[in-house]
Amino acid sequence: MPEASGSVSRALRTAPPDQLAETADAVLRQTLGAARAEVFVADYRASGLWPVLDPDVPDGGPLPAHTVAQRCFSSQEPVLDIVEDGRCRAYLPLSVWGERLGVLMVDLPGDPDAATVEAVRDAAGELAVAIRAADRETDRYRRARRRERLSMAAEMQWDLLPGRSVRLGDALLAGQLEPAYTVGGDHFDWSVDGDRLTLTVLNGTGSGLAASMLTSMTVNAMRNARRSGGSLVEQAELASDTIFYQHRGSRHVATLLLELDSRRGVMRAVDAGSPQLLRLRGGRVTPIALEQQLPLGMFAETRYDVQEFTLEPGDRLFVVSDGVYAAAPDEQEPYGVRAMARAMRSTRLQPATEAVGTVMRELHAYHADADLRDDAVVVCLDWRGSSRSDDVTGQ
């Protein structure tokens, strides 16, 4: 069956960027005798899977959380479902470099053998790469992801993200922004380079478009320094100077800059009045104390120092903004006093990509499912410390 994935790959390379789902469907029908193939993408909250083909038809709603497709999306493993007439619906994860995009469903004749399952899994991998690349060339997949209109600020924030998760060797990183459709200033950014995973988490100030523009300027200043070979300190200092000379100290951004050596588990950090950093180890959640330095942009020519700490195999780090740990709806104690740690402990058996959703759902429940009063960002970083792969691989 290798010809199936090869045919999909060749067809996708020449297909228009907005026609990838139709192209995969046509090739899988021809090469595997499939009755149909459907592409489902995760929405901005990762709360449901939505069809790319005919998303506006009356029954084109989300796939509920208990469905086979959702099990595939959560486990990132193929799931086979034998239906009444003896056909098999194969559900394959659409993932690339650790980022979960959605699920491919292929309706196959009979119970497929291992070679067929592997062929459709390879085809799903090719399709995921194509959708990731096409996302900048067409709005189709983003339209399928959104369940309501994004605010202008949120549009800018989501467009600024490099993705929602990534894997590098022993490390898996995932993040989530809320409220997904109106988020303003809170943000995260990452980059992979060799054995190094660089992560920044920003606790943006203000609200709406002004907050989003400040975050965008901050992220792009740090990217400019990083892409020019600058260290964490140089990234922080360039961003701080850029913000200060634009706003003269009236605006600033609390930021945590991290750089992980994914082989050795050594973390370098610059804490610029940062979001909270916590570690889950052996079922216990503890804050990691760093020397807190001035937020970016508060004063001219601010200089920063870097610190180091070491991870142990199996460690999980959470970074949360004050919209998470300081949330105190209806005059309750802040979410971060006890409830947040309980939510984090409950994620022990989940991958980082699921853990961020768990913490966010618990935060929404803490607010009694009312709208969040502040932007919130949760980032989860796992370091297994077991393999020695140099590759960035899908989950």
Would you spell out the secondary-structure blueprint of this structure?
Elements lengths: L1 H13 L5 H13 L3 E7 L6 E3 L16 H8 L3 E4 L5 E9 L2 E10 L5 H21 L5 H6 L6 H9 L4 E4 L2 E8 L8 E7 L2 E8 L4 H20 L4 H16 L6 E8 L4 E7 L3 E6 L2 E4 L19 E4 L4 E6 L1 H4 L13 H7 L6 H15 L9 E8 L12
Antiparallel strand pairs: 1-2, 1-5, 3-4, 4-5, 6-7, 7-16, 8-9, 9-10, 10-11, 11-14, 12-13, 12-15, 15-16
Helix pairs in contact: 1-2, 1-4, 2-4, 6-7, 7-8, 10-11
Structure in words:
The chain is 33% helix and 26% strand. The protein has a six-stranded antiparallel β-sheet. The chain has a five-stranded antiparallel β-sheet with strand order 2-1-5-4-3, with helices on both faces. It has eleven helices and 16 strands. The protein has two domains: 142 residues, GAF domain (Beta-Lactamase); 234 residues, PPM-type phosphatase domain (Phosphatase 2c, domain 1, 4-Layer Sandwich), CATH 3.60.40.10. It is globular and about 65 Å long. It has 395 residues and is α+β, with helices and mostly antiparallel strands. α1 packs parallel to α4 and α6 packs parallel to α7. The C terminus is likely disordered.
